[in-house]
Amino acid sequence: MRDETLWWEGESLFLIDQTVLPARYEVVECTDVERLARAIRRLEVRGAPALGVAGAYGMALAARTSRETSLPAFLAEIQEQAGLLKKTRPTAVNLSWGIERVTTRIAAAGSVEDAQEVALEEAHRIAREDEETCLAIGAVGAALLPDPCTVLTHCNAGALACTRWGTALGVVRSAVAEGKEVQVIACETRPLLQGARLTAWELIRDGIPVTVIPDSAAASLMRRREIDLVLVGADRITVDALFNKIGTYAHAVTARYHDIPFYTAAPLSTFDPLRKEWEVTIEERGGEELRTCGDWQLVPDQAGVRNPAFDATPLPLVTGIITERGVLFPPLDMSRILSP
Ligand code: MRU
């Protein structure tokens, strides 16, 4: 079993298949962009920072599998493959960020061979940076956690959502590494159960106490003062809103009502400071994710279903954003985020 969520070996990108955890640990090999695009759409790889790294390696795959020998034709193919990958999931900004970082390097290359080399080099750099960034976020965030404390989290913002360590769960890991006593309440995260399946799996692997609850139990636990702090990841942070897994907004409203701190942890690559909430596309996933659970039919055929994968939480409901450069408190100073 590897510590990394995704890694490059030979001429392929390998991913832990997150659709079959916790029942099975399986690895998917992506030898071309088409297979990676399928993996992203199916959530075999998922979580904003991991999508950034996957997108970067996707462009390395595109460069290395291209049969074009003339530079202009090669660059046109790269642009087409970049467009294909970006369209797989629209909400997490890290995906297009990772793709663009590599395509910018490719565009500046002097030859196809040079482009193939720099693409992989840049993808490796993005993967390394992700780990360093998560450790920095962990160190910043650990100081905010009381000792002992109970943290409520939603979805999975852990090692599986990054290359390793994690953002929100990285904060928990760093606090535990510092000797703090932290236990996690993981919301199951309907309909794909990233909390129940993935957050619980990786915390157990690390020996951190975790209890899974139905999403609908969060409010009642907050009312009973069983939660000290809510801590989630982020798929995109605009000038006015935090985008994260559907259900996050409800936790933020409830936390504010009960005077419980609500934090998000995210790298600066998750910020989209030039856009506003209404300019962001919220991914709507297929109705079959709600209609069935394995062989079990959950919804009558005649009923309509809606399956938005993310929601937007207005930033005034967020106590602080834990980044690798420190904690940002809304309202955001965009010049600080945009400066190198
Ligand atoms: O649909 P998913 O599983 O990709 O959604 C992931 C989340 O909402 C995470 O909370 C977010 O990407 C932050 S991961 C560090």
Examine the secondary-structure arrangement and name the CATH architecture of the largest domain. 3-Layer(aba) Sandwich
Report the order of strands and helices.
Answer: EEEHHHHHEHEHEHEEEHEHEEEEEH
**In which order are the strands of the major sheet placed?**
6-5-4-7-10-14-15
Could you tell me which ligands this complex binds, including any ions or cofactors?
Answer: 5-S-methyl-1-O-phosphono-5-thio-D-ribulose
CATH topology of the largest domain, by name, is: Rossmann fold
**Portion in helices:** 40-55%
- Which CATH class of the largest domain applies here? Alpha Beta
Number of E-state strands:
15
Give the percentage of residues in beta strands. 15-25%
Fourth-level CATH superfamily of the largest domain:
Translation initiation factor eif-2b, domain 2
Distance between the termini: 37 Å
- How many domains is the backbone divided into? 2
The main β sheet shows up as:
7 strands, mixed
What is the radius of gyration? 20 Å
Question: Which structural class do you get from the secondary structure elements?
Answer: alpha/beta
Q: Indicate the low-confidence ranges by residue numbers.
A: none
Shape: globular
Count of separate DSSP helical elements: 11
